[in-house]
Design brief:
Shape: globular
Radius of gyration: 14 Å
Distance between the termini: 31 Å
Number of domains: 1
Oligomer: single chain
Largest sheet: 2 strands, antiparallel
Number of helices: 4
Helix content: 40-55%
Length: 115
């Protein structure tokens, strides 16, 4: 079972009750899918103050997520590339300039896969 829309705005700190993921879409699939969306955020929510596309950030996140979640690096990179392609297609359809965030992250994932 997957959340299906796991990103910075959907994980909230409830203080003493801890962290909680809200707005689940309830998908079934590989858990690497849920982690892929993290790599484009929070830039999609606030492109004026880029975080995800800052130099070195992608590699830092890749290391943290693979270690903390116990995911295989190559497979996570494949999910990141698939997710950014899907997300970019939505932005292209809407002629939204936020597509640049997805394309930048996709290029980083593709470069890592090619290494």
């Amino acid at each position: 079972m997957l959340h299906g829309d796991l990103h910075h705005d959907n994980v909230l700190d409830f203080g003493g009750r801890g962290w909680c993921a809200i707005d689940p879409h309830g998908l079934v699939g590989e858990r690497g899918f849920d982690f892929a969306n993290i790599f484009t955020n929070p830039d999609l929510a606030d492109p004026v103050h880029p975080v995800a596309t800052r130099p070195g950030r992608f590699h830092e996140r890749l290391q943290v997520v693979t270690q903390a979640a116990g995911l295989e690096r190559h497979r996570l990179l494949q999910w990141i590339l698939a997710w950014t392609g899907l997300s970019a297609s939505w932005f292209l359809e809407d002629e939204d300039p936020l597509v640049e965030v997805d394309l930048a992250i996709a290029a980083m994932a593709a470069a890592e896969l090619a290494r």
